């Protein structure tokens, strides 16, 4: 995975940080953080999902499978033309994974669900849900809850499997001030978790480039699948079921502002 950043602005700062964090790391020492947020007239939903490899070759398997999917489904001229009605939600959150399937939207979700189901990866998810009529939860409080939920489940997984923690968590890039604030919250949360000794010096960094690694895109897709399920739990979702099959307990759904 290339971590070279382009000079100038936030990308240069984030690129340097990510490059430094990943020096000397093996692929199995890298985890990815997916995020999803949506607001309706009734409620706000925020999802964070941590994804890590269960075996050393997991990320290579995912990248190779995605490349094979593009080769099997990819007609260059067709892929350059957006389908009628615009792109799907899958393409919006995971364009590299979704693009080869845009011409077959009915099968896109089930195809990607099958891909995830076969991958040796695990997920830890945290959800903050708030009724729209309640006062907006502060960003810091929300991020603290999401980080705490994901890291607690990840720590429990490490304890049950007697495995070592990854060394770096790569998250989607944001504005410099937002990244700095999330870094500080993450550093505040980590030492106070029951699993802090197992998690060690697990570092959070942000991917600096517009095109993200395929594993980060998969984490984004997983977060969106969970968020859409929270919005419409009665709606069948093969992607959500595939993600749920890989969830590490105690992944949690945290509701703010009302009783669950």
Q: What is the CA-atom radius of gyration, in angstroms?
A: 18 Å
Work out the strand percent. 15-25%
Portion of residues in helices? Answer: 40-55%
Tally the helices: 11
- Estimate the global geometry from the Cα principal axes: globular
Give the strand order, joined by hyphens, for the main sheet: 5-4-1-2-3-6
Compute the separation of the termini in Å. 41 Å
What does this structure look like?
The protein has 260 residues and is an alpha/beta fold. It is built from 11 helices and 6 strands. A 6-stranded mixed β-sheet has the order 5-4-1-2-3-6, with helices on both faces. Mean pLDDT is 84; it is low at 1-13, 75-81 and 254-260.
How is this structure best summarized?
With 260 residues, this protein is α/β, with parallel strands linked by helices.
